[in-house]
């Protein structure tokens, strides 16, 4: 069980008084230590300049097509890269007269690192277009000079950075233009070669193939109609020719049979003058006469088609019919040949049509490749001209508008913790640290120092408490102790006052 708050505070005050020599000693040590630190720590002065960036080209608003198309970079990053670079710090040391050409010694390298450590770069403003260049140094004049030098070096380097970026962009785009120009030529050559090969193979578009097939089919239909007409004409002419032949043959044969009949009858009459009716030759002649008469009857009926010995070519009508029939047969053969060739052509066109889709796909791919390369090439040409213009503008320092919004100034007030801050911190910690140590000792101390603790631990009543009785020797010792404590405290404040006077006196500043 702990003491009550009131008892705890009383014990704390009693311990503070008991250990007042230690408390005073710790207070003096801590206060004087912080005072010494504040005395020997040099004041740091900060001088800075702010720059306003406007990366828009001053000429761009005058251009109808906005040729200057370069975007705004991250100026905070660019500023840090430029200012913290070894090249910039070397130029700064040259401008300050600390080196002639380049860093050669370790001391110069240490100085370069110190300059870089004391330099700060930041970005300000809602639009992130203000750059702050700040330098810290114990000498306010040096802080101003370095901040001014860094600002000038940064402005010059920024113009060079812009020109370098524009040059690199132009070179890159120019290389891309050449590359895509070559690709465009290759795509154009492939497209031209494919069209030539397609033309040589006779493969055209699907609509052209369909048109030719349709025309051939119309030709076949018309030829088939003409063929039917010619076949009908042929059949008619053959019938006419056959009837003419029959009539001519029948007349010719009848005349022959009549002549033969007359000859046989004359012969029969001549034989009858010499022989009887039973004479074999007369019988034979009679039979021949009967045969001839029968043949004449058959000719009259039109049953015989024997053309032996009959000349029908002398009939003019027959000749005309034969000529017409020959012409008709020729036209029939021509039409049949035309139909077969047209069908063969349709089959060939259908075979070509099967290649049309494949060729169209290849043509579409080649055309698309050509158009894409052409579009990219034309866009790159425009970008190259824009990059060329930006490069020319940046080379003439017209593409970047840098305005010094606030130049570097001579600082009069140190930055960071000053001497008074260290003194105040030393006095405050000189009070708190000993008090904290005394209270910590009070917590861990196991001795009984209060009647309340006895009553709480042993649960017995306390009748009373006997205080210590000091004799003259003890009182003298306490007086000496009090004088020593007061002496330590007064000496501490006197030393702090003297050091403070030396720190802020004009002679010290000089």
Give a nutshell description of this structure.
Helices cover about 75% and strands about 5% of the residues. The protein has about 500 residues and is mainly α.
Descriptive tags:
disordered C terminus; Alpha-Beta Plaits; mainly alpha; four-stranded antiparallel β-sheet; single chain; 510 residues; 13 helices; 3 domains
What is the β-strand count?
4
CA-atom Rg in angstroms? 67 Å
Poorly predicted sequence stretches spanning 5 or more consecutive residues: 56-70, 305-314, 506-510
Helix tally equals 13
- Give the tally of structural domains: 3
Strand order of the largest sheet: 2-3-1-4
Q: Based on CA inertia axes, which overall geometry fits? A: rod-shaped
Fraction of helical residues: over 70%
Main sheet record: 4 strands, antiparallel
Q: What is the average of the pLDDT values?
A: 76
Structural class: mainly alpha
Strand proportion = 5-15%
Q: Whole-Å distance between the termini?
A: 62 Å
N to C succession of SSEs: HHEHHHEEHHHHEHHHH
């Amino acid at each position: 069980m702990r003491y009550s708050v009131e008892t705890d505070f009383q014990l704390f005050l009693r311990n503070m008084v008991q250990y007042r020599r230690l408390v005073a000693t710790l207070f003096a040590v801590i206060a004087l230590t912080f005072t010494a630190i504040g005395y020997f720590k040099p004041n740091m002065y900060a001088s800075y300049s702010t720059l306003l960036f406007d990366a828009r080209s001053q000429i761009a608003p005058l251009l109808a097509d906005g040729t200057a198309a370069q975007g705004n970079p991250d100026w905070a990053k660019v500023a840090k890269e430029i200012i913290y670079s070894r090249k910039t710090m070397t130029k700064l040391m040259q401008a300050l007269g600390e080196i002639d050409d380049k860093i050669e010694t370790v001391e110069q390298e240490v100085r370069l690192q110190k300059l870089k450590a004391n330099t700060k770069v930041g970005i300000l403003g809602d639009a992130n277009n203000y750059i702050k260049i700040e330098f810290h140094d114990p000498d306010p004049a040096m802080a101003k000079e370095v901040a001014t030098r860094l600002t000038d070096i940064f402005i010059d380097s920024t113009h060079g950075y812009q020109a370098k970026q524009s040059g690199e962009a132009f070179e890159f785009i120019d290389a891309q233009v050449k590359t895509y120009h070559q690709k465009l030529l290759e795509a154009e050559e492939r497209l031209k070669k494919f069209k030539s090969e397609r033309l040589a193979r006779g493969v055209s578009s699907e609509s052209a193939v369909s048109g030719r097939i349709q025309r051939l089919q119309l030709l076949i239909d018309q030829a088939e109609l003409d063929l039917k007409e010619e076949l009908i004409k042929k059949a008619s002419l053959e019938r006419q020719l056959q009837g003419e032949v029959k009539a001519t043959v029948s007349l010719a044969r009848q005349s022959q049979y009549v002549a033969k009949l007359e000859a046989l009858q004359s012969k029969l009459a001549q034989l009858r003058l010499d022989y009887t009716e039973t004479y074999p030759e007369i019988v034979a002649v009679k039979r021949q006469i009967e045969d001839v008469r029968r043949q004449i009857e058959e000719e009259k009926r039109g049953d015989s088609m024997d053309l032996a010995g009959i000349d029908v070519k002398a009939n003019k009508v027959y000749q005309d019919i034969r000529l017409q029939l020959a012409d008709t047969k020729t036209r029939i053969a021509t039409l049949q040949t035309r139909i077969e060739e047209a069908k063969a052509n349709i089959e060939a066109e259908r075979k070509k049509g099967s290649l049309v889709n494949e060729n169209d796909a290849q043509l579409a791919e080649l055309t698309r490749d050509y158009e894409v390369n052409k579009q990219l090439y034309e866009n790159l040409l425009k970008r190259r001209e824009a990059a060329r213009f930006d490069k020319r503008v940046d080379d003439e320092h017209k593409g970047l508008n840098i305005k010094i919004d606030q130049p570097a100034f001579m600082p009069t007030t140190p930055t960071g913790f000053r001497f008074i801050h260290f003194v105040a911190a030393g006095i405050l910690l000189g009070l708190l640290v000993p008090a904290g140590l005394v209270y910590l000792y009070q917590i861990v101390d196991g001795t009984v120092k209060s009647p309340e603790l006895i009553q709480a631990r042993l649960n017995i009543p306390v009748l009373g408490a006997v205080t210590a009785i000091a004799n003259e020797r003890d009182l003298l010792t306490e007086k000496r102790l009090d004088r020593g404590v007061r002496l330590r405290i007064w000496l501490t404040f006197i030393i702090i006052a003297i050091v403070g006077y030396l720190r802020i006196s004009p002679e010290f500043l000089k």
